[in-house]
Amino acid sequence: MRHTAVLLISCPDQRGLVAAIAEFLLQHEANILHADQHQDAELKLFLMRVEWEMAGFKLDLADFAQAFEPIASRFGMTWRLADSSRKPRMAVFVSKFDHCLADLLYRYQSGELHCELPIILSNHEDTRWLADAYHIPFQHLAVLKDGKEEAEKTQLAILRDLKVDFLVLARYMQVLSADFIRHYPNHIINIHHSFLPAFHGAKPYHRAFERGVKLIGATGHYVTETLDDGPIIEQDVARISHRDSLEDLINKGADLEKVVLSRAVKWHLDNRVLVYANKTVVFD
Amino acid sequence: MRHTAVLLISCPDQRGLVAAIAEFLLQHEANILHADQHQDAELKLFLMRVEWEMAGFKLDLADFAQAFEPIASRFGMTWRLADSSRKPRMAVFVSKFDHCLADLLYRYQSGELHCELPIILSNHEDTRWLADAYHIPFQHLAVLKDGKEEAEKTQLAILRDLKVDFLVLARYMQVLSADFIRHYPNHIINIHHSFLPAFHGAKPYHRAFERGVKLIGATGHYVTETLDDGPIIEQDVARISHRDSLEDLINKGADLEKVVLSRAVKWHLDNRVLVYANKTVVFD
Amino acid sequence: MRHTAVLLISCPDQRGLVAAIAEFLLQHEANILHADQHQDAELKLFLMRVEWEMAGFKLDLADFAQAFEPIASRFGMTWRLADSSRKPRMAVFVSKFDHCLADLLYRYQSGELHCELPIILSNHEDTRWLADAYHIPFQHLAVLKDGKEEAEKTQLAILRDLKVDFLVLARYMQVLSADFIRHYPNHIINIHHSFLPAFHGAKPYHRAFERGVKLIGATGHYVTETLDDGPIIEQDVARISHRDSLEDLINKGADLEKVVLSRAVKWHLDNRVLVYANKTVVFD
Amino acid sequence: MRHTAVLLISCPDQRGLVAAIAEFLLQHEANILHADQHQDAELKLFLMRVEWEMAGFKLDLADFAQAFEPIASRFGMTWRLADSSRKPRMAVFVSKFDHCLADLLYRYQSGELHCELPIILSNHEDTRWLADAYHIPFQHLAVLKDGKEEAEKTQLAILRDLKVDFLVLARYMQVLSADFIRHYPNHIINIHHSFLPAFHGAKPYHRAFERGVKLIGATGHYVTETLDDGPIIEQDVARISHRDSLEDLINKGADLEKVVLSRAVKWHLDNRVLVYANKTVVFD
After folding, report:
1. B83 catalytic, yes or no?
2. Fewer CB atoms inside 10 Å of the end CB: C or N, chain B?
């Protein structure tokens, strides 16, 4: 795997932006591998992702912020830099359903997900065997009725201790409190088992079955304080018919959930996702 | 085109049903072309579609009801018979958007839609040119504020005069009254420009754009008294991205609407659709 | 899981078939759960799948053949009966790529694949860890240059000893000999990593990349003596773009291969697949 | 519709490219609406599409070539400039099937296809009514056995007289000669009724039906001297099953052909397509 850097920028759209960025990178002899930009015409917003090879780059990343500051402040940029040699640390939250976890573990082990995985946290014991099979630390932490506040305090402590960067809710069946979420803004990825905004909330497959829809869906999104309302990263659907029972919906849906969640996690890890106006840009 | 008959049956599921129907058809020397059945395990319902060639069939269709009556009443069947030599009479309601109308007209003219088309009714003049190009009668009937009751009375009179069997709302922008709908139960097909139940009601593309969904959809359904809540016949989706403006959504959506509506109309015409429990079975 | 029986029939299409079968099942008080039939108009062939509950069925399955024989011979039927209480025994062949194997193992473990899995056979050691994680016997058997005949002899002996019913080639990179295949006609399922018949043979992703296709595919099929030419059970595709490198194609393709192969295996296990004229009917 | 300019560039990948282009556009006060670039890592090629508003642009497009020349020659660029106020002139070739023509005509009339349409050329009279309905000139030109050379000479003369820029073969059933094609390199768009490279050549639906594929496809591509081998612009597929007869394949395929061809034509008109190495980049 090549050593690269990714720069993500968002700012008000204005003349001279691209020239200034390109000039800056040229000056430090960046060998650009990918560059992609997006202009939101309505909001007059400019968003950019640029990735370059570290080999030959003449600027130490430790000095990047200082060197880039004049451009950033001139154009009013919000920006972040990612260094591919530093793997983000991911925690997975899971309950009893194990299909998403199994999929993430396989992809982690195969190297497809470029991250560390220091912990799997669950309110049940059911998936411990999977964590064991892949040699990932697993911690069971029951969430009792009226015990959520306590549980979340413990969870946050664990995440802090393990220097976790972001969370994946792999069919985790507890609703996180607004307070918890505020610790990881746009850094908690959830898979919802419907094509949002249809069937937000509980038991989406049951309601899809009752409504008689002809396609079922799954949605990977960042978690915000409003349930199932955060910025959507990825969605996909599968065709069903009257021949499909509720159980068939749940089974076909599980396959959707796996691929949608894994794409969302992968794109997050590849620094392809930028959030604005409760939406995402996914640079491809 | 072959001359065929289609029998559609629904009744409580019970032993001996298939044997009785098969025996009946055999006795009259039906040459069965297609037979398809569905059992709803939860509701304990049996639904069937069987199509046979009229050539060689030894029972006059005029006598079918009498001959079939003993079986129908023994099993408590709801049934209907369709004779392919009798083309249903379709009316199309349209407003200003013409993409669905253009698509239906082309398919009608090419013989893909096996029906008569005695009238296009519109509350605007915009699509008259299309009706003229395909030589279909077009009637403009303005629906004034507070004039819906009056307008619907006129519409119903026209439909009655022309012996119209069913209606297609090809992006007709007026909400029909419950009273109007009661004249054509499960015989009004609407295209809604979203993946229902997401974004029911007005301006679905605007709301999809705002929500930042990654797929847009279209839904063909029978119209019931509750807006956008009738039995779904067909749905489909198309992928969009942050690069798509609201206008792009509307344009990509138009292509979806066309194919979804035309499939719904075609299946209705082919007597493939059975409604139960506010859902459809679409025999394929 | 309910105890059921599945009857699969193919024979020349003729009057009275359905009535005779329905009458037979009624007589033995079968509670039919699903029945599906297909008529190939061109080949004048009739194909049927019927599944009924064993609870309440008045005929011992051991006596089925004898009882059904008069009908079978009257209509010239080819038929087979499957008893859901008897799980088929599956062997998986694999080489170095482990994504399909991981997917099959997870589905096997979760109960989605209703079978026994007595052996994983591989010409490499690479996937042993996965077999171990799921506690499935793994046997390494190198296939040396000029040693295929010898290796196949050993493989066949193992399969015979373990009473294996059917084989799944989960990205097994050796071509099986015609002689080997003849032992398992329509009982070896392969996943080919292209949308057959495009890019049959070696290195399909490389060739798809060179040709500049806009979709890549995967094909699950029964293995016949002609390479990549057997009856297709399932296919699916994924969209790619100029942004996708050859490596991206291979990664996206892996996800396709998994779902296509698992569907093919599942349908085979559910006795949904009937082969005729080098095609399949997949009853749904 | 806004007045814009599009610049398409391809050249060897090298440092300073983006900076030079951005600097040039900034200097002439271009208000950039969209910019997209692609680097082919294997071929070390840089491809770019940039679109800006003409309002406020300080360089007359008549002087663009001269002003841009120093940059173009410094980096060894192949480039072209498109002015949105100049609509390309399209000719449609058609035989008897009219579905693609009907679709193109509707999209042309609705303003979706931003072009002139001075002529429809056909070797049959069948589609004249459609041309008439949309008031487009139609010319019938029989192509006799052994008369292709003669016919092509006439066709070329007509195209020249009408200053046609590019051709669309909307299910035109004659193979164009290499000599003819050389007059319009990468300017003839064909729709092939299969998922190329599967089933290239004649009767693809028949062969797809025989092979028992589970998906059918359509391919929009530029015509080159090798039949069905030109750069692919767009492809799509639709699911079929054993229930679909050959006729069903042809009908479902027609819907695919329409959308795939219209996308290819639209992208060509929007100057989104760049050809290299017998592939396309489609900037989105």
Report:
1. no
2. N
